[in-house]
What does this fold into?
Amino acid sequence: MEPEVFVGVLSNALFLVIKIVAAIIIPSLIVGLIVSIFQAATSINEQTLSFLPRLIVTLLALIIGGHWLTQELMDFFTGLILQIPEVVG
It folds into this structure.
């Protein structure tokens, strides 16, 4: 068992987490920025105004990208299972 194998698995896992989180968070951040600009332009200081659009966009990102997210996780797990003989042997 070489340490490079475990470092590679950890690296791939962290990259997968970054991809999944970015696919969900980036659209929400963009909508939050647009709502904040709108609030600054109109002097509306309501804190709850930005919550609902961000929530809706986050849920839409999960609905639209859910299949891709699940497929990425399944591919990673399948890759881990296929690497077991390489790690053990």
In short: The mean pLDDT is 91.
